[in-house]
Amino acid sequence: MSTPLANTVIVLDFETTGLSPNMGDRAIEIGAVRLVDGKVTDTFQQLMNPGFRVSGFIENYTGITNNMLRTAPSCEEVMSEFADFIQGSCLVAHNASFDKRFLDAELDLIGKGYSGEFACSMLIARRLVQDSPTHKLGDLVRFLNIDNDGVFHRALADSEMTAKLWLAMLQDMSTTYQIDNPSFKLMQKIGKTTKAAVPRLLRSA
């Protein structure tokens, strides 16, 4: 089996009713971008009805209202479709531990799984974009002058921004370290390496 490359991944983002599926929080929107050889070839975006009303805070934060969710399909229906979309792909998210928790929890509820591994663009950005004032998605996008329409906290917009950030980091590795086609495993490794040790890791890659 060939080694998965970092430029062929699915970048995903959840909007949710709160911070923890263990506390009963559910997903209310999923957005994802499929990258193949560094190009967007497909997207997935769907609101989903969690079966209860969301708080005013979440409505304001995401712009997703209870009225919008009332007519949305159920989490179970959407996540079943999404499980098929991501099957066999490596996955990327900004603050991946958050998105992975919700992906795992929602798929557990319908008895589905996935075979791909996760990489966290936020942890990797902390190593590769050390000068950014913060490593929140919006701040990184502004710091790197990544083209954006100013929409954040909606799932597809955030996954599109994360995909652009991911490709910008791959480009930087090519320019700075002459690493043209990094493996997905190398990106995961960068996210787990101390900031000081990253240049040595990349010089030897």
TrEMBL record:
Catalytic activity, as annotated: DNA(n) + a 2'-deoxyribonucleoside 5'-triphosphate = DNA(n+1) + diphosphate
Organism of origin: Vibrio gallaecicus
UniProt name for this protein: DNA-directed DNA polymerase
Alphabetical UniProt keywords: Exonuclease, Hydrolase, Nuclease
Residue ranges annotated for the Exonuclease domain, each copy included: 8-175
PANTHER family: DNA POLYMERASE III SUBUNIT EPSILON, EXODEOXYRIBONUCLEASE 10
EC identifiers of the protein: 2.7.7.7
Keyword Repeat found: no
SMART domains recorded: EXOIII (SM00479)
InterPro entries: DnaQ (IPR006054), Ribonucl_H (IPR013520), RNaseH-like_sf (IPR012337), RNaseH_sf (IPR036397)
Leading EC class: transferase
Domain of life per record: Bacteria
